[in-house]
Specification:
It contains 8 helices and 6 strands. The protein has about 200 residues and is α+β, with helices and mostly antiparallel strands. It is elongated, with a radius of gyration of 20 Å. The two termini are about 35 Å apart.
Length: about 200
């Protein structure tokens, strides 16, 4: 994938750093990481590009400024889609499923949720939730099978997750907790109905 751009003008501030330098992969010459991410953001839907951007930011492989510098050199017809994805990107997403959930929230026009919100009581325990809509008192958790392990560990993991959710629900500001599976994320209508029922306003 390669989006041609006019490279004239000032030299971007990160030129020459590893994320901006073309490299080799399995013996093949490939574009720099930053260039590849911007190309994907410019040509693919957000549910494809945002998980990639989030993962690179979370791993500190790139910085937002690197992406914006590269975007400045992109052709005009590619800039809008890429900018939307780059501005959505977040280093706080813990998984591709969380990234896709954020894309769905944006598509549906929800308020911007707080990511990785911490519920804690002094001297007791704490729980970090995937998304928190404070004005509506709604917690959203994104579940993936991998988090529960395999075999005998599954029952224990489910029990721990139930206790964790009970703890989150014990806070008076929490009205409800919604859980989405990977399959749910593939169907925006499922997300829309669940959010409406929970009282989260949509555009």
């Amino acid at each position: 994938m390669h989006v041609e751009a006019d490279r004239t003008g000032p030299v971007p501030r990160y030129t020459g750093s590893p994320p901006t330098t073309p490299t080799e992969f399995c013996g093949a010459h490939v574009t720099a990481l930053v260039r590849t991410l911007v190309d994907v953001a410019a040509t693919e839907p957000a549910f494809v590009s945002v998980p990639m951007l989030d993962a690179a930011l979370a791993a500190r492989q790139v910085f937002p400024e690197m992406l914006l510098d590269e975007l400045a050199a992109a052709p005009p017809n590619a800039v809008h889609r890429a900018r939307v994805a780059i501005e959505m990107a977040s280093s706080l997403s813990d998984s591709p499923a969380e990234s896709i959930a954020r894309v769905r929230f944006r598509q549906l026009g929800t308020p911007e949720p707080v990511q990785q919100h911490v519920f804690a009581r002094l001297g007791v325990r704490r729980a970090v939730v995937d998304f928190w809509f404070p004005a509506q008192g709604v917690v959203v958790e994104v579940d993936g099978r991998a988090k529960y392990g395999n075999g005998a560990a599954v029952a224990e993991a489910h029990w721990d997750e139930k206790r964790r959710e009970d703890f989150v629900r014990s806070f008076p500001e929490v009205r409800t907790v919604i859980r989405f599976s990977w399959a749910d994320l593939m169907d925006p209508e499922v997300i829309r109905v669940a959010l409406i029922r929970a009282g989260v306003p949509l555009r």
